[in-house]
Structures are given as structure tokens and as C-alpha cells.
Design a protein that fits this description.
This protein is α/β, with parallel strands linked by helices. The protein has helices at 2-34, 43-50, 59-65, 82-89, 94-111, 146-156, 173-177, 184-190, 215-231, 253-259, 264-286, 300-307, 311-316, 338-348, 369-372, 377-386, 399-403, 410-424; strands spanning 75-80, 115-121, 160-165, 169-172, 199-202, 205-210, 236-239, 291-294, 323-324, 355-361, 391-397. It has 18 helices and eleven strands. The strands form two sheets. The chain has an eight-stranded parallel β-barrel, surrounded by six helices.
Length: 425
């Protein structure tokens, strides 16, 4: 009996030691699997370790798969406007678009640029796959994805891609009439209460406009950005200077009266700030390394008085933008002189987390006397921008005018191109 009891005790000890070792091994393996240290396990063992099936991503796995954006300390950017995009897309097959946009991006790279601002939604029409906005009419019945193609080709050239969005500008009445009922903007257009509040017409403008006064409108803007950042490997989101389309008090009269505020201008500025902050926070929750930038008017007074854009706050406080690209589309002898203007922007940019990129108007070399008569003026403006204490780059508007000028202007543009590329190199 004593011998049998001893055997049982020894057996129990051995079993206990085996179970203890098994538990330790399980914990050790789980640690390495979560950290993705290279241990290959079959699906059944994965389920036993993690308690989830192979289709479920852990937080660590999601973090590991997150796209790492490509951005530069010094932006050398060029705008591809919807006008440029229309020429690349209209009537072209997928293969033709690939060829034309690929050549354009190679042109940009060879000229010394490292960043492209690509217009992906100009009139609440998407140049990408969207559930929130109708696809651009330029695509017609074609189903390819312009943004996906651009990102793929640009990244192979080490070009940073910033998706350029107009947050509030919609299409014309005719465009909205033909828009599918599935989209929010069409539902607002059809709603007797929201057509005239959420979505508005403006005198002397054929386009309809979203009204920044409403939470739902600001959220739609943010959702539109979220959709892009979640589904595409963009390196940045870019807004330009289309905020409030008018100073007319009737534009948002109902919302202003309901707000209980007394200062219309400050209230409008606050509405835009809320939208900018919401967009910034939405981007950072998805990928903190994706940049958010805005290109306001170069004239600071106009930003406040016409657009209700609080550029001083954006340049000085956290949580609004990562970079600011004022459109300093002025000559040296302009009523808003170039040197004086860029120095003002340099002065108000007091937040070290915000980069200052100076926007330049290359298109004026064929349209404005000071630019026409002074060869190398854009290159000279780039040189002067580099002297700013807060300089972080330049941006040129736009692709078409620099690379595909009409024959009658080709010599003038080619001359300017040479000076620009030398300065960018």
C-alpha cells in the first residue's frame, strides 16, 4: 500500500511539473506572436493562443500594418488642379490614364519636386472610390480609380501625395439634380428644411455651397477626409482657400440667429475653426503621421474678412494644421508686395510644429506684366522664401501652366521652367 501511494505521489508531481512547463511555454509563445517575432504557427494554435480566429486583427497587428507616410522637411510641391485632372481623365481608358499621369509625375520628379497636391474632390465629386460622394463626371461610365493609380506611380518616384479637397463647394443645380439619391448632399438638396440651410445657393455663383454653421455639415467634411485616409496611402490632406463663399448676412442668417451670438464675423470664424479642428483630430486618430495642410489666401486681411479663416490661430496653436501654404500670388511691386507678405507670414508662424510653405503663381508668367517682363521671377521668389526663418518649402500653381503651356507661350514658360528647376535642385 505504501509503495502504491508513493507511486501515485510521484506521478502527480510529474504531471504537475509537466502542466507548469506547458503553461510557461504557452505564455512565452503568446508574447512572441503578439510582437510578431517571426514564429510561424498554424491557425489552430493561433486560436488557442490568442482566443480569436485568424480573421481578427489584434491592435498590435493593426499598428504594424499602418502606412508610414512619405513627407519631406522641405516641401517642393506642385498643385494638380481639377482642370489638370480633367485633361488626364476625360475620355481616357484606364491604360491611357496610367500612361498620361505617369508621364506627368515623371516630369514633376525630373523638375526637382518632391510633393504633389492632387485635386481629388473639387465640387463634392470624387476622383476616387467613395461611398459619401458621387464620382466625378469626368470619368463617365469608366470605373477605374484615379487616386489609387496616382499614389502607386507617385510613390515609386518617391513623390509625396497630398489629397486636395474643397470642403464646402458643391456642383451646380443641374449637377445635383442628376446626383443619385443615395448621397447625403442630394438628400439635403431634396429636403425642404436643409435646402436653404445646410446647402445654399450664392448670388453670382452657379455652384451650391455647404454651410459650415451646422455640426452635420462639418461632420460630413470630416467623414470625407476619414474615408480617404482610411482607404488610401495618402501622405497628406490638403484644403485650399474655399471656406465661406460670401460675406452676405443672408447666407447663414437662420443659424446665426439661433446661435444667440452677437458678432457674425467671429461666429463664422469659430465655425471654420471647429471644422478644421475636427478634420485634424479625425486624421490623427487614423494615422498621426499623415499631414494636414491648408492653403489660404496670401492676403491675411482677406482670410479674415472674406473667408473667415483664422490663419493666425492655425499658425500659432496646436491641433489645427501641420503646414500652411499661403497663396502668395503677388509680384514684388504688387499692391500686396511679395517680400512684405512672406515676411508677415513668417512672423505669424510661431508654432514650431507648423511648417510654412510659400505658394507661388507660376501661371502669371504669361498673364501679368511684372511676371512676363522679369525672367526668372519665380526662381527669385523661391530664393527669397528660403531666407525666411520659418521656411519649410514652396509650392507652385499649377502643373498645366508649367509643363503644357500653349505654343504661343512656350518659350516664356520654358525659360521660367529652367530657372525654377535650377533653384529646386
Amino acid at each position: 500500500m505504501k509503495l502504491k501511494r508513493k507511486i501515485k505521489i510521484i506521478t502527480l508531481v510529474i504531471i504537475s511539473l509537466f502542466l507548469l512547463c506547458s503553461c510557461e511555454r504557452k505564455v512565452y509563445t503568446e508574447k512572441f506572436e503578439v510582437r510578431n517575432e517571426g514564429i510561424a504557427l498554424n491557425n489552430e494554435i493561433k486560436e488557442q493562443i490568442s482566443g480569436v480566429n485568424d480573421k481578427t486583427e489584434t491592435t498590435a497587428q493593426k499598428e504594424e500594418s499602418k502606412y508610414v507616410p512619405l513627407n519631406y522637411d522641405e516641401q517642393k510641391a506642385i498643385w494638380f488642379s481639377y482642370i489638370d485632372m480633367a485633361e488626364f481623365i476625360s475620355g481616357n481608358s484606364k491604360s491611357e490614364f496610367k500612361q498620361s499621369i505617369g508621364s506627368a509625375l515623371e516630369n514633376v520628379k525630373n523638375a526637382g519636386f518632391n510633393t504633389v497636391y492632387i485635386h481629388v474632390r473639387a465640387f463634392e465629386d470624387a476622383y476616387y472610390k467613395s461611398k459619401l460622394f458621387p464620382k466625378t463626371a469626368y470619368l463617365g461610365t469608366k470605373t477605374y480609380d484615379p487616386l489609387k493609380i496616382i499614389i502607386s506611380k507617385a510613390h515609386k518616384l518617391d513623390l509625396s501625395v497630398h489629397a486636395w479637397v474643397n470642403p464646402f463647394r458643391c456642383g451646380t443645380v443641374d449637377t445635383l439634380e442628376s446626383t443619385s439619391e443615395t448621397y447625403v448632399i442630394k438628400k439635403w438638396y431634396n429636403d425642404d428644411e436643409k435646402n436653404g440651410t445646410y446647402i445654399m445657393s450664392v448670388d453670382d455663383d452657379e455652384h451650391m455651397w455647404l454651410n459650415p454653421a451646422y455640426d452635420e455639415v462639418r461632420q460630413l467634411v470630416a467623414n470625407g477626409v476619414i474615408e480617404i485616409v482610411e482607404n488610401y496611402k495618402v501622405d497628406g490632406i490638403h484644403f485650399d482657400d474655399y471656406f465661406y463663399p460670401t460675406t452676405d448676412k443672408s447666407f447663414d442668417k437662420a443659424a446665426f440667429e439661433k446661435s444667440g451670438k452677437s458678432d457674425l464675423s467671429n461666429w463664422r470664424i469659430d465655425n471654420i475653426n471647429k471644422m478644421i479642428r475636427l478634420v485634424y483630430d479625425s486624421i490623427k486618430k487614423i494615422n498621426s503621421n499623415v499631414k494636414f495642410g491648408i492653403s489660404p489666401q496670401g492676403n491675411i486681411e482677406n482670410d479674415y474678412q472674406l473667408q473667415f479663416a483664422d490663419v493666425k490661430k492655425w499658425c500659432s496653436e496646436d491641433g489645427y494644421v501641420d503646414y500652411i501654404t499661403p497663396q502668395v500670388y503677388y509680384g514684388y511691386s504688387s499692391t500686396c508686395p511679395y517680400l512684405e507678405t512672406i515676411k508677415r507670414w513668417d512672423k505669424i508662424k510661431t508654432n514650431n510644429k507648423v511648417n510654412l510653405v510659400i505658394g507661388l503663381a507660376e501661371y502669371k508668367v504669361i498673364s501679368e506684366d511684372e511676371y512676363i517682363n522679369n525672367k526668372g521671377i519665380i526662381a527669385e521668389q523661391i530664393k527669397d522664401a528660403k531666407e525666411l526663418s520659418n521656411y519649410s518649402g514652396v509650392a507652385i500653381y499649377n502643373y498645366k501652366n508649367l509643363f503644357t503651356a500653349d505654343d504661343e507661350f512656350s518659350d516664356r514658360v520654358e525659360s521660367e521652367y529652367t530657372f525654377i528647376t535650377e533653384e529646386l535642385s
